[in-house]
Amino acid sequence: MAEQRQAVSRPLSPHLQIYRVTITMAMSIIHRFTGMGLYAGTALVAWWLVAAATGPEAYATFQAVAGSWIGQLVLFGFTWALLHHLFGGLRYLLWDAIVATSPRSADIISWAATIAALLATVAVWFAALSMRGVL
Fold first, then answer.
1. Which residues are involved in binding heme (predicted)?
2. Which of 5, 28, 118, 135 has its CA 20 to 30 A from that of 37?
3. pLDDT category, 135, cuts 50, 70, 90?
4. 31 assigned to a ligand binding site
């Protein structure tokens, strides 16, 4: 007679409830979100260019929206997303060149990219506001 097979107890695949969030994991997720945000931000750049080409009234409308506090917040976020995505991309470029692939060095360049993006964003806005005479 045929033997009855018993179900083998196997471990479940690990998922987010098991993993500890690391800087490299967070950077990978944020890199994807900033990439998606840059798609939306490109619409702002297109609006700016179309408004500049259309005439003074259209450009004044764009300036009114971009100059509001919410517009400034969106532009600050777009600047951060652009720079964060840039430094994150450089981090991936290093990994593609098989540099900084050990866990410790990967964490170091991930933190370096995060800090560089924040500092560069502040520097860009400081320079822009200084040129406008606000600071």
1. 85
2. 135
3. confident
4. no
